[in-house]
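S1.2 Input.
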Amino acid sequence: MRVLLRAPMPRAGTTALVPVARRTVRLRVQVPHWHTTHAVARGTAVTEGDLTPVRHVLTNGPLDPPPALADLVGGAALRDLAADACVTARAVTPMPAVRAGEEVVAVVRMGGLEVRAALVAIDAGRPGARVRVRHPESKRTLTARVVGRGEVEVER
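S1.3 Output.
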């Protein structure tokens, strides 16, 4: 990785950050992540028994944070995974926090007031995604943002 080092230098009555050196840096990053305990076939649902926690130096690949166990369990393998393979976000479809057809807790916030209600998700989504939800009695459809497992915040 190439790095540009800058230092504060007085310039025209103010202080500015001025480049002082360029360096190439080799990073060795050791992070906790997940490996497969055995071979997992493409399309197979990933279970907790398929994964084991490991920690070692990652020598290549993006510096994205590794997926959490909750994001992997229940997802499907996108490709064949060998035994003891690093499991990345690109190897397993993430488990949606909200699934279509399931009941979700919807939160509506107005000023200091917070109201919670049970609605039904029309769309599936991960945290941060916008989904449609429906009130089971009135059949009214609303747009909400997924905030967690089985929980959405209704957008006004």
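S1.4 Remarks. The chain is about 5% helix and 45% strand.
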